[in-house]
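Progress against Task 2.4 (sequence-to-structure conversion) is shown through the following example record, which the project officer requested during the mid-term review.
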Amino acid sequence: MATGALPPSGDLVLTPGRPRPKKGIGASRGGFGAGEDKSPARPAPSGFRLNALRLPPRAPPARRRSAASLGGCVGREFEEKMPAVRMLQHVVGQLLLGPACGCRTSALPARSLGASPWQIPANANFHSASFSETDQPRVLITGGLGQLGVGLANFLRKRFGKDNVILSDIRKPPDHIFQSGPCIYSDILDYKNLREIVVNNGITWLFHYSALLSAVGEANVSLAKAVNITGLHNVLDVAVEHGLRLFVPSTIGAFGPTSPQDPTPDLCVQRPRTIYGVSKVHAELMGEYYHYRYGLDFRCLRYPGIISADSQPGGGTTDYAVQIFHDAVKNGKFECNLKPSTRLPMMYIDDCLRATLEVMEAPAESLSMRTYNINAMSFTPEELAQEVHKHIPEFQITYNVDSARQAIADGWPVSLDDSNARKDWKWKHDFDLPELVTTMLNFHGSDTRIAQAN
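Structure tokens generated for the chain above:
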């Protein structure tokens, strides 16, 4: 923050109440130093009291000094120990000095952004975005380096412009992702950091993709609770506070063995047996509650297994349907950790991203619910392998069943009933199994492998 600038959230707070003496700057919240000012407090204007700042009494008109001079007197005792006092000098003068300044009579927001800069430095370690007013949404994607985040960022940038979509994660992005558009650090467990990003960048849409997936979550339940639940709470609160349109993906993992499995409707019994599934049911219900209680524009889709060509598997139970293409092209063989007859709903990433944008752009009045199923195809590992074999005749699949992943898959739907999505906002998928396999193998260069084999 430049010297003398006042953050819009207000580090200096005027709150209603009677004037009361303070014990000096050293006693204020956070503390500026060890000293105390014994002079009596000056009442704040119009029935407000001045918190977190002690000042000497106002001088007579003939002896008034400049704002900078008075600010220097106030801050000199602490200047060496707390340079941030300089930031308050101009504010002090504006509040208490000079007939042209007048008095501030309105209370500033009580929650402060703290000491982080309001303006993004030109040399910050990410790409600064344009802040010009536009009808396009300003988008933040959390957990952006996961399976879906990078693809979503590229998809939305084509629609809304590169600088209007900010990708965020706690990991350092590869150079090609960093160069593709705005990319910043964001920890969803740090509420203050998340809030500053939303405010500083004028965010209007937030896509919350930070989560530990099913198999990884079972291996680290405590971390899954923190990321999938505590992180969600921070996102919900920031979204309500700043009037964001919020998208949180859910999953087939939100259903359990007692749910109807073929097809699984939007509304039914949900008793998942993984921390991932439990946290997603929690997200669905919290988002719906915040919508009806606080007016949050919350939107959610239950994704089937998502198959993406340009990303690595992220620890999900359906990730075999991604890994099989990597291994088929590289080695001509694949070891599957699910039974050959395990049927699960799946979707190609292009359909997934398009559905996500369509539900976000749908008029609010067209939505009969806040969480929808979406579906495209259902297949087994055996059926997928047969389709791959049509393109790579030497391809072989073997099975080494992982009991933990198999137990998870056995409790999931065989197919999803997405009739409400197709009715309310005209959802329609483009990719079935043959188109999916052709697209994935073309991306990974199966033509080159076939030519080498021949």
